[in-house]
Design a protein that fits this description.
The chain is mainly alpha-helical and 360 residues long. The chain has helices at residues 7-17, 43-60, 63-80, 105-122, 125-141, 175-188, 191-211, 218-235, 242-262, 269-284, 292-303, 333-350; strands at 27-28, 31-32, 37-38, 41-42, 91-92, 102-104, 143-144, 147-148, 151-153, 158-159, 266-268, 321-323, 326-327, 330-331.
Length: 360
């Protein structure tokens, strides 16, 4: 990045100019720097991009972020959303054809929250109405007697058999997407949404202690830390409850310990950012004591993943991770989103603004 360019401006320029967002509004899962091409457009990542671009617009006032964010939101409502099935497919090709025949609970929650962020900015009922319809479909389709099924096969919405990998079985990480139900309850007053979130919260608290480490392979534990941080984020609205505050404090300590133990072998930028965001927001609300040394250390490490390059496909984006100190060839929209918000909140703390922000 240029010497006078802020990390926010550099990351924002990457979102706008790297090609990670297609002309359709859809956003690719990541850019492969070794291959020189994007992965397919992802509905989940597009949902994250809506929230991120609107965060950048709120932060800077730049209209280009608003335009790009709304283009992503309209891709979700007009291209990705299958109103007949009541589902968002996992991935879409550039031309809108489905790449898979699956829908994920986690992805749907991220998309709903992105659409609600667009509705709050514009009050366009298209965003609100699709978000509500998707939230109701999540309530109808994913719960089972043993938890929330993570993946359904389309078009009949049959649950896939659970697998050992964390993303292919229920777990505490699903609480982040259940935040969509919590937000929908605040908007609609529909008690089913409140019950959905509370049920997910109860299940997440039960799964909390079992989720980590969850695997003997340390690199897989790092991946599970990313998922576990979703659980911590999902607790943020209920930290006024004693049980939730205790689980949050203990969870931050456990996750931080594993992160710094495993990082020399494999480090993910998003894990640094997720823990930093969660800790900063909890410190601002008085749930955690201020730990400026830990905050500063994680902010420095998260910032180290931002790329300086003359190549616009790379410049300003954040790397997904490093193995044994070597950069991995993935420039990742979600890593960029998490790191930018975490560093922005850290910057606010340094200037004594102490904002209360929801996590992207």
């Amino acid at each position: 990045m240029a010497p006078t360019e802020s990390f926010i401006d550099a990351a924002g320029r990457w979102f706008l100019q790297s090609g990670i967002q297609e002309a359709s509004g859809g956003v690719a899962r990541y850019y492969r720097s070794d291959l020189g091409r994007n992965a397919p457009v992802s509905t989940e990542i597009t949902g994250y991009a809506v929230s991120t671009l609107l965060f950048l617009h709120q932060r800077t006032g730049e209209p280009a972020y608003l335009e790009a964010g709304l283009r992503a939101a309209r891709f979700l409502t007009r291209v990705a959303w299958d109103a007949r099935l009541g589902a968002f497919p996992f991935e879409l090709a550039v031309n809108g054809a489905s790449e898979t025949t699956y829908t994920y609970f986690f992805d749907c929650g991220i998309i709903v929250r992105g659409l609600l962020s667009a509705w709050r900015v514009t009050e366009e009922i298209e965003f609100r109405d699709v978000a509500i319809a998707a939230g109701r479909a999540m309530l109808a389709d994913f719960p089972s007697g043993n938890g929330l099924n993570p993946i359904l096969a389309l078009p009949h919405k049959r649950p896939l058999a659970w697998q050992p990998r964390w993303s292919q079985r229920p777990g505490c990480y699903q609480l982040k997407s259940a935040l969509a139900w919590n937000e929908l309850f605040e908007i609609t007053g529909e008690s089913a949404f409140s019950r959905g979130y509370e049920s997910a919260l109860e299940a997440a608290l039960e799964n909390d202690r079992d989720f980590l480490p969850g695997d003997a392979d340390r690199e897989r534990v790092m991946d599970r830390l990313h998922a576990y941080a979703y659980f911590l984020e999902g607790l943020l609205p209920v930290l006024d409850r004693a049980q939730c505050a205790t689980a949050f404090r203990n969870g931050v300590d456990r996750a931080s310990g594993y992160l710094h133990e495993i990082a020399p072998v494999f480090a993910r930028s998003d894990v640094y950012a997720q823990l930093l965001r969660a800790r900063l927001l909890a410190e601002a609300s008085g749930v955690l004591p201020l730990n400026q040394a830990a905050d500063s250390h994680e902010a420095e490490l998260a910032a180290s993943f931002q790329i300086e390059s003359g190549d616009p496909r790379l410049a300003g984006g954040f790397l997904f991770g490093r193995r044994k100190g070597e950069d991995m060839p993935f420039v990742n929209p979600v890593s960029t989103a998490f790191c930018v918000q975490a560093l922005a909140i850290w910057e606010d703390q340094l200037t004594k603004l102490h904002p209360k922000r929801s996590v992207i």
